[in-house]
Design a protein that fits this description.
Subcellular location: Cytoplasm
CATH class of the largest domain: Alpha Beta
Family: Belongs to the phosphohexose mutase family.
Helix content: 25-40%
Distance between the termini: 36 Å
Protein name: Putative phosphoribomutase
GO cellular component, one term: nucleus
CATH topology of the largest domain: Alpha-D-Glucose-1,6-Bisphosphate, Chain A, domain 3
Strand content: 15-25%
GO molecular function, one term: magnesium ion binding
Amino acid sequence: MTSSLSINDLVEKWLSYDKDPVTREQITKLNASGDVDSLEKLLRKPIEFGTAGLRSKMEAGFSRMNCVTVIQASQGLAVYVKKMVPDALKRGVVIGYDHRHNSQTFARLTAAVFLKHGFSVYFLDGLSPTPLVPFSVKKLLASCGVMITASHNPKDDNGYKVYWENGAQIIPPVDGGIAESIKQNQEITVWDLEAYKTDSKIISIRDKLINEYLESAKYLILDRDLNQKVNINYVYTAMHGVGAYFCERILESLSLKPYIPVISQLQPDPDFPTVRFPNPEEKGALDLAKKAADENGSNIVLASDPDADRFAAAEKQEDGSWFVFSGDQLGILLAYYSLILSKSKNLDVSKLAMVNSTVSSKMLRSMAKVEGFRFEDTLTGFKWMSNELIALRDNEGLIPAFAYEEAIGFLLNPDILDKDGITALVSFVQLANFLDHKGMKVKEFLDTLYTKYGYFASDNYYYICNDVPKINKIFDKIRYGDSTSDISDQKRSNFLMESSGRRLKYPLNLGGSPITYIRDLTIGFEMSDFDKVSAASSNQEFVIKSGQYYPKFMVSPSSQMITFETANGGIITLRTSGTEPKIKYYCEISGDNNDRESVAKELKQLVLSVGDDFLEAKANGLV
């Protein structure tokens, strides 16, 4: 443990491990100048391994991404996998990397660690999209997979993403077991950047796996004859990432015409020179692609993020404006594509399973009620959605047809149990082509889905707050109330939790509408008949006995997350971010497609109420 050591001891410990001249020099210079504050930030608190693996800025120190922390993570992971996965050494590990600074180095060091521990290593030596790793783990029946990427994070970041033997990202208790194993295996036992070249346990079949990935994607073909009759043009931006080659190959493989590239963003560049943030969701990120589309007479813009696991799209409208589809809108469109694809294969719709995250639109739930497929929502993140699909497949015999999250992540191929921007792109192109042959734009078709399944409008926001105690106080005021709150006790519930002795005083109204449902995953509370119970209890105390009203989702006291539903169709989730100093909130309201104006008005009132009444943004100085 580093917490009990002096800063001088931490410096000495670091220098005894580190063989990278760049990071050694960083610590040496800080130590020579007596910059204790910087040394404390870099060395005192070790980087935490969680369900997302590792992700941080690339710098020296135990709290950052660097060669030392990558080796330590790999040592802990290797030991844990050997212990937990049958025949792990023979089944091997898949290791891939993207184009970010140090990604190749981190991948080679990871391979060296697993080789030392006796694993066969499927080393994808060459730039790879993230989806290729979970595909390969599932295809090869490997014991685990590691992808070196920070997805769409800023250029100074990198990450270490872990996939389990089922081809999905890790979830508890696996993440906790790996984290503990890392703590027990801190001493650097191998530092070898050349082992991947010479060790007999290295298996180099990257090209074969890419071809098998493309072959698997043919499952997504709706109509090959129609694919050969594409009249629309589409512009594509790789956002300076690795997606260009793979998107080109998959379009060709499915007999679709090639994309028109955004030349300045086509080649992998770890400095992302033309975008402020390499994320297609960011404002202005698609500007160059729209310009290229205008110049080439194209009505569709397609984009993937740097590691090509996310997908974005925009469509030019009749008035010349560009409509950028939200993650939820793309989710519904691609869910419908998955539905008609399944029907074309004569699959039983009742056997299809589709899932999305709890902060994503409930329009998918509405679609499920109309069409008859199985719908489930999960906690935020593809790790939860993929594992839910696996459970529905293994326990109930359902087909993992589709999953999505509002942050432009989509799963359409059951062979890839993670989000995949490449297969999402080729599915969207086929849908757009299918609609074009019917004389319809994609945005027009989306409007018909609103008529069929109900109109759903959403707005997602966040406030920046670096003060963790203040964030916790804000959330505690929502659930427990206090004497300074703008929401009086007469407008709150009065529940006593028997297990803790604390009184829950959740607000009874939001945006002028009664609250009908609450789920609090920080303390472990879920009540679907909230309005009825509150009305019945009136001003009397309502005792919640131990085990009553406990949520189906995992409870995490270390993070904040509360969901409310209102009588007028509103759904609101407030949560803290695991990687950024933000309070995020997701608001959605549904209604009649013929009365969008009323829906928009109620949504606006909902959003204002969350900021003013719940978060008290002005009083708390939230930005």
